[in-house]
Design goal:
Blueprint lengths: L3 E3 L13 E3 L5 H11 L4 H4 L10 E5 L2 E2 L15 E6 L16
Length: 102
């Protein structure tokens, strides 16, 4: 058994549609490097140019936000579940104030 990464819908285009990917590695860094090596299109969406987690991606290992713990050094168990959640942004431009009707 290996740790598994759940791939969110917006990133499945880079994994040939795979929703869950088993990954080797004892740490989150090793697991993400494996993913980025297997599917190079994922690299800029997961890691920045310095190999650190991209600031617009949240990663959870076994339900825990890794940014609040050991980050990329987070240890993995054989049955660990890694969830990658890209930040979503959106909204609309400022709308004019509501005009009163007479």
């Amino acid at each position: 058994m290996m740790p598994a990464v759940r791939i969110p819908s917006p990133l499945q285009q880079y994994t040939q549609g795979a929703k869950t990917v088993p990954v080797p590695g004892k740490t989150l860094a090793e697991a993400l490097e494996y993913l980025a090596g297997k599917w190079p299109g994922l690299r800029p969406r997961l890691l920045d140019g310095a190999g650190q987690m991209h600031p617009f991606v949240n990663v959870f290992v076994d339900g825990e936000d890794v940014r609040l713990g050991q980050g990329l050094a987070t240890p993995l168990r054989e049955d660990s579940e890694i969830a990658v959640i890209p930040a979503m942004a959106g909204g609309s431009p400022t709308l004019p104030p509501h005009e009163e009707r007479n």
